[in-house]
Structure prediction request, 444 residues.
Amino acid sequence: MTPGVLLTDLYELTMLEAYFAEGMDGSASFEFFVRALPPNRNFLVAAGLAEVVGYLTDLSFSPEELAFLAQTGRFQPPFLESLGSLRFTGDVDAMAEGTLCFPDEPLLRVRARLPEAQLVESRVMNLLHYETLVASKAVRCTLAAPGRLLVDFGLRRAHAGEAALLSARASYLAGFSGTATVEAGRRFAIPLFGTMAHSYIQAHRTEAEAFEAFARAYPRDAVLLIDTYDTERAAQTVVDLAAKLARDGISLKGVRIDSGDLGAHARRVRAILDAGGCTGLTIFASSNLDEYRVRDLVAGGAPIDGFGIGTRMNVSADTPYLDCAYKLQEYDGQPRRKRSEGKATWPGRKQVFRQVDADGRALGDVLALDGDSVPGTPLLVPVMRGGRLVAPLPTLAASRAQVQAQLGRLPPRLTDLDKASPPYPVTVAPSLRALADELDRRPP
Prediction:
């Protein structure tokens, strides 16, 4: 089921009714940003823009939704009537998906009539936060295992269906090879990968019978799960079966290990397969993996060709949320600044400029006011004008390539899984500091 416009916080609607009563309909600018990097993160990967654009494009209240709001008794009929014609007619500027980003930098800026820009807050945050969170976790797995097959295995423990689909998308954008989630393959054209479950093995009288039946059903793409009973014995069974199948023109693709000491099992299985002439069979590993376990396996020389990574990535287990915000920065032509303790914002509409050296290596970013003349490449680009796309969004493949290109331009210390020192520099432009100081001198 596709969520409707009521997938929002109640206070968005109560504020809208108050704005309606006051006649507050001026132009407002809001920005989405992350206040601080989580532990052990040196950068984030901007993701989720495509879903935000889809949401804004389709934004409207259905008769059923308006009827529900009416029956709550919370809202006056004139206000509900006004919601019937509400659409998103504003402008969006954003970092392209796959852009590497840092604290306080707006990933997205919305400029629209105040009711429109306010209403979309909760869902915009929901979409940008989750995909950025997962993409930023997934890219660390790609850094831990360069050149290895990485497959999203997270559907069954994802936090419901939408999370499973968006995590498959975000991980592929970040550099994963594909997903086991079939609907994600259909919806986003992500390559699909899969093997078998232990139940398939257990449903047969013997492990050998299960292996052979599956291989004959999938004569060119069979990856056999070998840890249901005894991993090394199963590897020998695979060797014996491979010779038999070869006589019928059937070739196995590989084996999967899903339990125990993955590195030790992989070494023993590799030795058994190679001794039996099955040097071309790959070894695929899964079982509560994350970038740290993958890094250790790769560094330890484990002969593993690919990894299935699920739960710990899909829920970003070590950092399950980002300290992100969507804040008003300008209203009716006047800059606004939140001064809450520990949560102060930089005022006004802003732009991020990325500065690079002669070789294209990123040197640092400058957070400045939109319209400032600052050396570097502006990262926020026009996405929507008047509620419509200014141009087709980049494909998922193009966003995926964007991640890899930007990783190649980062200082090497920032691609480590541990916290880098010094961190990537983000400088606040003097004009922005001056504006903040000016607003701080004004009475609230």
About this structure: DSSP finds 16 helices and 19 strands in the chain.
